[in-house]
Amino acid sequence: MREAVRSVAEHFPTAIVSGRGRDKVFNFVRLAELYYAGSHGMDIQGPTADSNHHLNTPSKGEHTRSVLCQPASEFLPMIGEVHDLLVEKMAAIPGAMVENNKFCLSVHFRCVDEKTWGTLAEQVRSVLREYPRLRLTQGRKVLEIRPVIKWDKGRALEFLLGALGFADRTDVFPIYIGDDRTDEDAFKVLRSRGQGAGILVTRFPKDTLASFSLRDPDEVKDLLRELVISKR
Length: 232
Hints:
- The chain is an alpha/beta fold.
- It is built from eight helices and eleven strands.
């Protein structure tokens, strides 16, 4: 999969948009030539100085332009406080895990006994009652805590398109692939633009604003390879 993503990035500006912290995503993917939007797009950085693979291409400027966007910096101390409180609360619930994604927090309950899910959610809500500037949403067996600002994966997509000079171009076809509820914000942006395609990764039919679907990561990898072949 890493090679497939690397190959796509050789021909198209490529970004990974994730709820996880940007540094964590980069350490997992380890491709310097990508754009990384961590914390649901609240922490965006362009290709690092280690990336020089576009030096011989005419579109170098579009691909390697440095991008940095952190619209929620003022929330960092508050998020740190809430993280410590949640860690203390979740210590009493076997299997619960609190993840600090810098500009947002994730409380994972995939490994928690289903009978305890209600208790876990109430414990999280009890902490957030003292922090009205933070909001709670739910993903796939995870509770997400984010700043109350108008920013999500859809806004991150719009920012990247603008930063790359693609916002007003009609000859650009953005493709966004995702498998989580939070990806619906990006699908919504593409649908409202009437340009590009959202692709939901799922084995089961779901309500979605995506235009197409793929069943699993293997099919995603096949699609990425086909994109490279068609470009070549």
